[in-house]
What does this fold into?
Amino acid sequence: MHTIGALTIDGLLKLYEARKEQIAERLRQFTEFYERADDEALFEELVFCICAAGYSARGAMKCVEAIRQILMHGDANEIASRMRFHRFASARARYIVHTREYLRREAGFKLKEILNSFDDHHQRRDFLALNPDIKGIGYKEASHFLRNIGFKGYAILDRHVVRCLLELGVLESAKPPTTRGKYIEAEERAKAFSQHIGITIDELDLLLWSYRTGEILK
It folds into this structure.
């Protein structure tokens, strides 16, 4: 874990000055990805987020690389076999296949069309997080997915970010929120803090994650 000592607002702002160009570039890449992505590319990013839950971003990237060639047609056993290094390979493979077949059956696999159909910021995320047929995606993972494909204004309240926000006095618990109400409440606090220090919530999320991990990934 890479940190800069006890986290303070001054220290955070100094880190932002050092990393803001990298952060801006990453956010630009997310936006450009959505502009050119087809439905299969978007689904691959959703799979990344399914695999990242309870694991790691780098591990999830490795999973996607391992299953990319069979992602759209492989069964759960085939997918689990290729990403057997994942700590929850069988469960994640079942989630992937169930979600894939649901999107095919109920939506003609038109994932981009679905996402574009929502005018409301919260309803777009609710579709992912509350849908029983989109497996392995809660509020944190839904926020992660939407941010990674270029949608703005979603806080990814994973353990790294929540611990930072606790240390900064923004949140009162180190436990990531698990319900819709608690997630939105914590997210609104994070947004108010980001406005207070003059950094967007999208920038703040990557900044805090990089503070804890030393990396600006996705």
Observations:
- The mean pLDDT is 94.
- The chain has two domains: 9-32+155-213, 38-148.
